[in-house]
Amino acid sequence: MEVLIQRHEESEDRAVKEETEPIRNMYERYLRFQGERGSLETGLAGRAIFIVAHGDNALINETCQSYSFTIPLNRSAVVSGCISAAVVLLVVELLVMTILWLFRLARPRPKWFSVRSGGRE
Question: How far is 97 from 109, CA to CA, in rounded Å?
Answer without folding.
Answer: 20
